[in-house]
């Protein structure tokens, strides 16, 4: 038998058990292992400066099993539950792509305005917990 000790997310995947006694044919059985874990979040750039009228894209990477519910929120300055979940608009676009237990989220803000200054959070939640990362968007205004 095969024993996996201290199993982690990298051990997720398909395992093939092959039985052979030297007389063809061999017999095989495929077993799929899913390692479940709470979300992890990684944000490459946590502070971004942008001139008025410019465009910016924030990246956020998550890992979770089972797959997490992910979304972007804008900090409203109060407790986390008062944060505003960002909905797509003419200037604000959210997208995500997933591969296995990994998800790449991005948020694009076009035609940057002073009212866009603030903190943006990417949030990932599954049945084992939740995690978040944040990006602070600042204006880089010329004097």
List the helices and strands and how they pair.
Layout lengths: L12 E7 L7 E7 L3 E6 L4 E4 L5 E10 L3 E6 L9 E2 L6 E8 L2 E8 L8 E9 L2 E11 L4
Parallel strand pairs: 4-11
Antiparallel strand pairs: 1-2, 3-5, 5-9, 6-7, 6-10, 8-9, 10-11
Please sum up the structure shown.
The protein is an all-beta fold.
Query: pLDDT under 50 segments (min length 5)?
Result: none
CATH superfamily: Immunoglobulins
Please identify the structural class as seen in this structure.
mainly beta
N to C succession of SSEs: EEEEEEEEEEE
Q: Into which percentage range does the β-strand content fall?
A: over 45%
Euclidean distance between termini CA atoms = 70 Å
CATH overall fold name: Immunoglobulin-like
Architecture in CATH? Sandwich
Summarize model confidence as the mean pLDDT: 88
In helices, the fraction of residues equals under 10%
Instruction: Based on Cα principal axes, name the global outline.
Output: elongated
Protein name: Lachesin
Pfam family, one: ig
InterPro entries: Ig-like_dom, Ig-like_dom_sf, Ig-like_fold, Ig_sub, Ig_sub2, Immunoglobulin_dom, Neural/epithelial_adhesion
Domain Ig-like: 39-136
What does this entry look like structurally?
By secondary structure, this protein is mainly β. It has one domain (about 35-140): Immunoglobulins (Immunoglobulin-like, Sandwich). Helix content is about 0%, strand content about 55%. A 5-stranded mixed β-sheet has the order 4-11-10-6-7, with no helix packed on it. Strands 3-5-9-8 form a 4-stranded antiparallel β-sheet, with no helix packed on it. The chain has a two-stranded antiparallel sheet with strand order 1-2. Strand 1 (about 15-20) and strand 2 (about 25-35) form a beta hairpin. The chain starts with 12 loop residues before the first strand and ends with a strand. The model has no long low-confidence stretch (mean pLDDT about 90).
